[in-house]
Protein backbone atom coordinates (compact mmCIF):
# COMPACT_ATOMS: atom_id res chain seq x y z
CA UNK A 1 0.00 0.00 0.00
CA UNK A 2 1.41 3.39 -0.91
CA UNK A 3 2.12 5.95 1.78
CA UNK A 4 -0.72 8.25 0.69
CA UNK A 5 -3.19 5.37 0.65
CA UNK A 6 -1.97 4.26 4.08
CA UNK A 7 -2.60 7.76 5.42
CA UNK A 8 -6.13 7.76 4.05
CA UNK A 9 -6.76 4.30 5.46
CA UNK A 10 -5.57 5.38 8.91
CA UNK A 11 -7.70 8.51 8.73
CA UNK A 12 -10.81 6.48 7.87
CA UNK A 13 -10.10 4.08 10.74
CA UNK A 14 -9.80 7.06 13.10
CA UNK A 15 -13.22 8.27 11.96
CA UNK A 16 -14.64 4.80 12.59
CA UNK A 17 -13.09 4.79 16.07
CA UNK A 18 -14.63 8.18 16.86
CA UNK A 19 -18.06 6.98 15.74
CA UNK A 20 -17.74 3.76 17.75
CA UNK A 21 -16.83 5.69 20.89
CA UNK A 22 -19.86 7.90 20.38
CA UNK A 23 -22.02 4.80 19.88
CA UNK A 24 -20.72 3.31 23.14
CA UNK A 25 -21.55 6.58 24.91
CA UNK A 26 -25.14 6.59 23.63
CA UNK A 27 -25.65 2.90 24.35
CA UNK A 28 -24.43 3.38 27.92
CA UNK A 29 -26.72 6.38 28.33
CA UNK A 30 -29.65 4.39 26.93
CA UNK A 31 -28.85 1.55 29.31
CA UNK A 32 -28.70 3.86 32.33
CA UNK A 33 -31.98 5.47 31.28
CA UNK A 34 -33.66 2.09 31.06
CA UNK A 35 -34.27 2.34 27.32
CA UNK A 36 -32.31 -0.85 26.72
CA UNK A 37 -31.72 -3.75 29.07
CA UNK A 38 -28.59 -4.25 31.11
CA UNK A 39 -27.97 -7.50 29.25
CA UNK A 40 -28.07 -5.82 25.82
CA UNK A 41 -25.24 -7.36 23.75
CA UNK A 42 -24.91 -4.29 21.53
CA UNK A 43 -22.85 -2.45 24.12
CA UNK A 44 -20.35 -5.30 24.47
CA UNK A 45 -20.14 -5.67 20.70
CA UNK A 46 -19.49 -1.96 20.28
CA UNK A 47 -16.75 -2.10 22.91
CA UNK A 48 -15.16 -5.10 21.19
CA UNK A 49 -15.23 -3.32 17.84
CA UNK A 50 -13.69 -0.25 19.48
CA UNK A 51 -10.78 -2.37 20.73
CA UNK A 52 -10.33 -4.03 17.34
CA UNK A 53 -10.31 -0.73 15.44
CA UNK A 54 -7.96 0.91 17.96
CA UNK A 55 -5.49 -1.97 17.55
CA UNK A 56 -5.88 -1.77 13.77
CA UNK A 57 -4.92 1.91 13.86
CA UNK A 58 -1.81 1.14 15.91
CA UNK A 59 -0.80 -1.62 13.50
CA UNK A 60 -1.47 0.54 10.42
CA UNK A 61 0.65 3.36 11.85
CA UNK A 62 3.49 0.96 12.61
CA UNK A 63 3.32 -0.44 9.09
CA UNK A 64 3.32 3.05 7.61
CA UNK A 65 6.43 3.98 9.60
CA UNK A 66 8.16 0.79 8.48
CA UNK A 67 7.40 1.58 4.84
CA UNK A 68 8.71 5.15 4.96
Report on this structure.
The model has no long low-confidence stretch (mean pLDDT 93). The chain is mainly α and 68 residues long. The protein is elongated. The protein has one domain (3-63). The chain is built from two helices and no strands. Helix content is 84%, strand content 0%. It has helices spanning 3-32, 41-67.
Task: Give the count of structural domains.
Answer: 1
Work out the number of β strands. 0
The class by helix and strand makeup works out as: mainly alpha
State the helical fraction. over 70%
Mean pLDDT: 93
SSE order, as H and E?
Answer: HH
Number of helices: 2
The backbone outline, from C-alpha atoms, is elongated
**Sheet having the most strands:** none
Instruction: Give the CA-CA distance, first to last residue.
Output: 11 Å
- Proportion of residues in extended strands: under 5%
Report Rg. 15 Å
The residue ranges in which pLDDT falls below 50 over 5 or more consecutive positions are none
Amino acid sequence: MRRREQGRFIHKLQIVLKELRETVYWLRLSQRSGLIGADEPLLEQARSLTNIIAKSIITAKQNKQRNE
